Amino acid sequence: NARASGIGNWSVFHPDMGQIADYRQWIESELHAAFQRGDFDVYYQPQHDLATDRVIGYEALLRWRHPKRGMIPPAEFVPVAEETGMVVPIGEWVLRKACTDLKSLPQDMSIAVNISPVQMMTKDFVSRVRAVIAETGVNPSRLELEVTETAMMQDRERAAQVMRQLGDMGISVAVDDFGTGYSNLSYLIDFPFQKLKIDRSFVNRIDKDNGGAVVSTIVGLSRALGVRTIAEGVETEDQATLLRAAGCDVVQGFLYGRPGPLAAMGLDTRPVAAGATVH
Ligand code: C2E
Ligand code: MG
Ligand code: MG
Ligand code: MG
């Protein structure tokens, strides 16, 4: 459950149980005001195609800059936002911001947005996504939604239906943190998705023990399923070389660029000339 996993994360920074409860309480009490006052921002991290050696898109990553306490990592506040339900409006705000920003990216680039299981399971999720797309006018094929195994396992039938509806709209779905959540692989058969995202924990052990075998197996599995692979958390040239050798399609990590404001991505975002299609 979200509460237990949340506390698991914080205990690294706040070993005292009383402090954990206080910190969690503080986050809960601050979240709403923070959202209202505009503390939140979306950073972008490049995704690099190994075949063409080019940036093909960006992952949108939520940031909370508290006026007094500074940056608060998503690992600390997203679980609380999931418990209170705040993740639903915040998640929709991220999606809208990402779709708006997508319009200033070159037309062959896409944006990936993380979707919380809580958000994905709300009754009107698909219609809200459809509304944001209509409102911003983006081409849905340039949008990718990252969902986790946990989301898919909560209510398999509903999750499969949502993923099918997203697919019908032309949106692609990536399975984030693949291999870390749920060991029953049967969902790979039941769920429609287009990309497997190899978790950082496998990437940073790719050159150790059986790490390489696990990564190669994930790539082989993806190929057999007809989906693409993206590796996250790529930090070294050695990891990139091994991922390329394993046949991984796309890489993302500090080696290629840290998450940052869109304006820091070094893109030419001048308005497109009159007469040309804008997005
Ligand atoms: P994730 O979706 O698996 O995102 C990858 C995380 O790895 C990001 O952490 C990113 O900054 C970090 N990262 C990227 N490259 C490297 C690298 O080379 N080395 C290392 N050590 N880390 C790297 P971040 O931004 O702190 O986000 C953590 C998690 O919070 C995300 O994991 C995602 O599950 C969640 N999250 C972030 N933004 C959102 C959002 O808008 N909505 C929801 N529901 N969850 C979000
Ligand atoms: Mg992600
Ligand atoms: Mg991930
Ligand atoms: Mg991850």
TrEMBL record:
GO molecular function, one term: cyclic-guanylate-specific phosphodiesterase activity
Record carries keyword Iron-sulfur: no
Official protein name in the record: Diguanylate cyclase (GGDEF) domain-containing protein
Domain EAL: 24-273
Keywords (A to Z) from UniProt: Membrane, Transmembrane, Transmembrane helix
UniProt keyword ATP-binding present: no
Domain of life: Bacteria
